[in-house]
Amino acid sequence: MDELIPLKNASLDQLRIDRPHYDRSGLRPGIVHIGVGNFHRAHQAWYLHRLMQEGKAHDWAILGAGVRPFDADMRERLLAQDCLTTLIELDPERSAAEVIGSMIGYLPIEETNASLIAAMADPSIRIVSLTVTEGGYYIDPATKGFDAAHPDIQHDAAHPETPRTAFGAMIAALKLRRDAGHGPFTGLSCDNLQGNGAILMQTVVSLARLSDPDLAGWIETHMTFPNSMVDCIAPATGPNELSLARNFGLKDAAPVTHEPFRQWVIEDNFCAGRPDWDQAGATFSEDVHSYETMKIRILNAGHQVLANAGELLGIVTISDCMAHPLISALFAKVQTEEIAPTVSAVPGMTPQAYVALIDSRFSNPRIVDTTRRVAFDGSSRHTGFLLPILRDQLEAQRSVSGLALVEALWARMCAGTREDGTQIEPNDPFWEDLQKTARVAQDSPAAWLAQTRIYGDLAYSLEFSDAFCRWLRLIWDQGTEVTIKTYLAD
């Protein structure tokens, strides 16, 4: 093989794949993005790069940011390659690669978040966007309200000038902007949350109110938080992904693989302007909620249908789960009978057609998306993705047998062992509590549903609780495969 080309500004002309054709030295920042993971670089950063390739949006470049110590590793890797990223599209039939350059810097990771606050206080920054995971918004799982008692929130309320959280840093920057006579930036969540803009607003305004009610009122009056629906599967980077980059002749320490599909639907509600993302394929819509519901319920909840069964049976990837005849049949039945009935059509797509699309995307063997990644943070993902569907099914007096089985599989998975006896490593912020409860639930299944911060009053639904207890007992007694076969035969 020829010598690998290091991914740097100075070597872009040597690349044999598509690369930035714009002068990156002339880009000016307009966006700070907090939480620079693979999804952001395959999605939001790509849409902006496409505009820049057309000579547009050169004053909207991205400054990366993070608020956790583990963000420092990504910062180091990206800065070493001038914040360039190789995106590798994995179609079942072929691979294609391109280098994108819409990110031009990565702010220091600091305990006080001083550099992040200073950057967001600059009026040239007109959007602060986030991908901080579904569980990162300090939401009380039971009430869906703001979790003011969380230690991070208590810290930021007591020390607003040296905040610990991304939201505290945003508030500190907004205070500087207001005091200097500048307007606010737009807060743009790109996480998989129903009404993610409204949730971001709840977190920011509620936290600000704890230390500065006047500032909270100014934020509520002048700042905007558009809802958005985001979609592109971008697995974690490991040795396989690094090897794929080398196959294209590149030395990239942080390449991103992704499926040949992207979707971004955004509410057009930006208080300080925005790029013309629609000219790169995004959709601006007043009805983001319908798109969100379809995607979160069929794709994100569908991921949870697969992942816990896959973990219990030692199946490593989502595509392998789809290749397993029982797990794929479970997926199809739950989707058709209990998830799709709660979803309305959107322009150009029925729920049934979307289920078929997701089936195809999940089955792509080139996308090495692990069951472990998908099963991560089940305490947030089940409460956010699955339980609202279950409640709607109960209200409509329709079956919840399949959803109860999915919850039972999660309860069994949280016991911490696969059916072959191997250990499942901690995979949830509340893993210790979940594991203790899961082990009690082996003999007393109702103990799992008694976790009110997760299930609220659902434990009092006899239809759900009876089905859940039946499935969990069967899983423990006869195993996952027998239980799924029993469900499929019902």
From TrEMBL:
Its EC number is 1.1.1.67. It comes from the Bacteria. GO terms for molecular function: mannitol 2-dehydrogenase activity. Residues 30-278 form the Mannitol dehydrogenase N-terminal domain. Keywords: Oxidoreductase. Transmembrane segments: none annotated. SUPFAM superfamilies: 6-phosphogluconate dehydrogenase C-terminal domain-like, NAD(P)-binding Rossmann-fold domains. Residues 287-468 form the Mannitol dehydrogenase C-terminal domain. This is Mannitol 2-dehydrogenase.
